[in-house]
Amino acid sequence: MMARFKHIVEKHLAGGKATKPLLQVNCHHNYAEKEVHFDEDVYVTRKGAVRAQTEDYGIIPGSMGAKSFIVKGKGNAHSFCSCSHGAGRLMSRNKAKNVYTLDDLIEQTNGVECRKDEGVLDEIPGAYKSIDEVINQQIDLVEIVATLKQVVCVKG
To answer: Distance of CA 40 to CAs 18, 31, 81, Å?
Structure first.
């Protein structure tokens, strides 16, 4: 996916010229991996989390209407060298669909190029925790490298 995105950027924004990114962050979430923690071989399941070992770079996204963060892991052993993968939901998908309207979605994603239809109503920013609070709760796990302003969000 990253290679495809880089190709599109080069083709449409860089006049076909090759680009060299300042930093490439390629991390995944929702997986299990065999690692060594506290001198034992263990399987770490990261559901909604990413690896944050020292020198690991990650992305902690907010909602489709909020900023996101590029972070660098601090290798905190007590978290099994992990950090959150995002803001996390404040309410279930079904509750969000029952609480919010399409007009709410349009208002909450003002200034962001994204789908604004009933099919993504459950992803409305109001259904998610504050990304600032989530980041502040894990300053012992990661350092912030960059703050990204949401301008485009692609959902399903």
So the answer is: 44, 19, 14
| Partners of 60 in the β-ladder | 69
Please check whether residue 82 is in contact with residue 33, taking contact to mean a CB–CB distance below 8 angstroms.
no
Q: What is the pLDDT of residue 156?
A: 62
41 bridge partner residues: 36
Which residue among the candidates 7, 28, 29, 85 is catalytic per the annotation? 85
| Three-class secondary structure assignment of 27-38 | CCCCEEEEEEEC
Distance CA 25, CA 2 (A): 9
* pLDDT in the model for residue 66: 92
- The Cα–Cα gap between 87 and 46 comes to 15
- Catalytic site residue 37? no
State the amino acid at position 55 in one-letter form. E
pLDDT at 140: 98
Return averaged pLDDT per consecutive 10 residues of the chain, 156 residues in all: 86 87 85 96 94 95 93 97 95 97 96 94 96 97 96 82
